[in-house]
Amino acid sequence: MKSTMLSALFAVLMGVSGVAAAEPPVPCTAANEGMVYREDFPGGYRDWACFSSQWQLLQICYDNRPYCEYV
Known about the structure:
By secondary structure, this protein is an alpha+beta fold.
């Protein structure tokens, strides 16, 4: 019960903060293995990397912070 409530709270907070994001629109295939896709959003950007045919979120950067959050 407690973990379910924490999971729900986490999902809500992620949605409010604008961090939750869908994978890039470009398919991750063997042809673009190692590619980094930058997704801009109001106030910052996210960097995604294509590894083993799956997109992985690398970092989230905000314009008002001197650092990025590594995921």
